């Protein structure tokens, strides 16, 4: 479908006047470290299998494993760059995805509570995850890879806005 300069084709993911806040690049490192651990374990199995039960198929399996791990390494950066959030007056927007894109809109009045979590790897890298819990069990409003101070600020701000909207103020 041709379009002119004055006419813009929008998708459900292109929102006018929305300034997206990206997550920390440390999330890329976290995902790549997990990928590297998986590669090391997989290669250890391949090497042990090749030593104990020699077959050229072990080399093919090792090469395929390395190719898959390399692709996951590259993909981690792209996936993290696609994650972002935006605070608007009445709701929070969370986007993610490259091939399968997702945009979650959470009205502040629907929030029940805000959860901040960080596992050992996340704490070591200085990042945390904010998860919004709403009345809907199927909402996936999770923002991974935030600096702890940003996660705390967002938790407090969203909680205040949620309470204000719930109270009808």
UniProtKB/TrEMBL annotation:
The chain crosses the membrane at residues 33-51. It comes from the Bacteria. The keyword Cell membrane does not apply. Keywords: Membrane, Transmembrane, Transmembrane helix. The keyword Nucleotidyltransferase does not apply. Residues 81-158 form the YdbS-like PH domain. This is PH domain-containing protein. It comes from Quadrisphaera setariae.
């Amino acid at each position: 479908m041709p379009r002119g300069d004055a006419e813009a084709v929008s998708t459900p993911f292109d929102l006018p006047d929305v300034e997206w806040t990206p997550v920390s690049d440390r999330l890329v490192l976290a995902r790549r470290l997990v990928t590297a651990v998986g590669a090391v374990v997989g290669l250890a199995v391949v090497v042990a299998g090749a030593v104990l039960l020699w077959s050229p198929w072990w080399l093919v399996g090792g090469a395929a494993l390395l190719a898959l791990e390399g692709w996951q390494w590259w993909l981690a950066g792209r996936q993290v760059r696609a994650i972002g959030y935006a605070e608007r007056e009445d709701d929070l927007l969370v986007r993610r995805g490259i091939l399968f894109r997702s945009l979650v809109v959470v009205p502040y009045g629907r929030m029940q509570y805000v959860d901040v979590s960080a596992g050992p790897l996340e704490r070591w890298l200085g990042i945390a995850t904010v998860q919004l819990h709403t009345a809907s069990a199927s909402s996936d409003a999770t923002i991974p890879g935030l600096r702890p101070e940003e996660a705390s600020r967002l938790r407090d701000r969203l909680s205040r806005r949620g309470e204000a909207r719930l109270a009808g103020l």
